[in-house]
Amino acid sequence: MTVSSYFQPASVPEALALLTEHGPELLVIAGGTVAMPLINEGISLPARVMGLRRLGIDRVELVGDRLMIGATATLTALAAQPHLPLLAEAARHTASWQVRNVGTVGGNLFTPPPGGGVATALLALDTQVEAIGPSGVRVLPLGGFWTGFMTTALAPDELAVRLAVPVTADRQAFLKFGRKAANTPAVVTVAARVAMEGDVVADARVALGAVGPHPLRSAGAEAALLGRPLTHAAIAEAVAAAMEDAEPFSDPVASAWYRRRMVGVMVERALAQLAQPEERGA
Ligand SMILES: Cc1cc2nc3c(=O)[nH]c(=O)nc-3n(C[C@H](O)[C@H](O)[C@H](O)COP(=O)(O)OP(=O)(O)OC[C@H]3O[C@@H](n4cnc5c(N)ncnc54)[C@H](O)[C@@H]3O)c2cc1C
Q1: Where would you tag: which of 27, 174, 204, 255 has the fewest CB atoms within 10 A of its CB?
Q2: Is residue 277's pLDDT more than 50?
Q3: List of E strands, the chain
Q4: Looking at the predicted structure, is the pLDDT value of residue 279 above 60?
Q5: pLDDT at residue 276 tops 80
Q6: What is the pTM (predicted TM-score) of this model?
Q7: What residue spans define the domains of the chain?
């Protein structure tokens, strides 16, 4: 089967009407950097395709204390925003200039592992996804967005239109480890964030990418850090917990065994970045 219809709606209501009319047979494409190679190789064979480029949902703007990111904002636009360095860093570590110029932030949420580096950073930042469907807007915390490998809580007749990300001055670190320094699939991705009260961790997020069916938080690592200074001992406990919580897989990039070990290395490095040297004595 080849693509027989390509729709380019000019508004969100028009796009929703097309989704309702054609149902799951209509493949949604934003930048197309994930979807198009699958079509070209005959892995995905949609009869109908809908592009989101003309919907006007590509703005990145600060609204109050939240960064509002339109789903079709490009990774290049995300890399350029100054408000959340964690997200800019994650975008810069994604693919190449060419891919970042067309690939979108929304599309990154749907990218199968080992992709999803930006999604991992968004998870560490407590992002909420605004989804719109025939019955209106739903707000989905990113923590509950993924339901399995390449499955999400989004209904077939819904679109992700915007992401709301709290802007925080917490200490943040993003690390991606791959076989090459740049433009490389991840062996593991780590996005970590801590809020300090004095020298004690008051809140912590440790998000892992490329080591599970979708980006995931290490509850064990976060619990190991809470209420303690960022000492060697606390970090070592968090590292062990993150290695336990990871759900690594083997692929041509790396074995599950290697991925789990690199979770330990990269979480240690990320948390070391967050710790002030003088706080790590114990
Ligand atoms: C050479 C190359 C290198 C890459 N390297 C990396 C990398 O290092 N890290 C990484 O994370 N990714 C990487 N990618 C994957 C990809 O480029 C990015 O994840 C990008 O963010 C995907 O966005 P897109 O708009 O192109 O997705 P698309 O291909 O347009 O969309 C993918 C799927 O997501 C769904 N979708 C997209 N937007 C919406 C929406 N708003 N609402 C509902 N459903 C939607 C659709 O089902 C669609 O079919 C790479 C890709 C290539 C080709």
Answers
A1: 255
A2: no
A3: 5-7, 26-29, 48-51, 60-63, 66-70, 128-133, 136-141, 146-148, 151-152, 159-166, 171-178, 186-197, 200-209, 216-217
A4: no
A5: no
A6: 0.96
A7: 5-53, 55-166, 171-275
Selected from 3.30.390.50, 3.40.50.720, 3.30.470.10, 2.30.180.10, the CATH number assigned to the domain covering 171-275 reads 3.30.390.50
Ligand 1, pocket-test mutation among 34, 55, 87, most atoms within 8 A of CB = 34
Record: fold of 55-166: 3.30.465
Residues having CB within 6 Å of any atom of ligand 1: 27-35, 52, 71, 75, 94-95, 99, 103-104, 106-108, 110-111, 115-118, 159-160
Which pLDDT score is estimated for 182? 87
Residue 149 burial (10 A CB sphere; 0-12, 13-18, 19+): exposed
Calculate mean pLDDT across residues 126-148. 97
Candidate CATH numbers 3.30.470.20, 3.30.43.10, 3.40.50.1970, 3.30.390.80; the one for domain 5-53: 3.30.43.10
List, for residues 21-52, the tens digit of each pLDDT value: 998 889 999 999 999 999 999 899 899 999 99
Does residue 260 surpass a pLDDT of 90?
yes
Per-residue tokens: 266: 């990269």
Q: Are 252 and 258 in contact (CB under 8 A)?
A: no
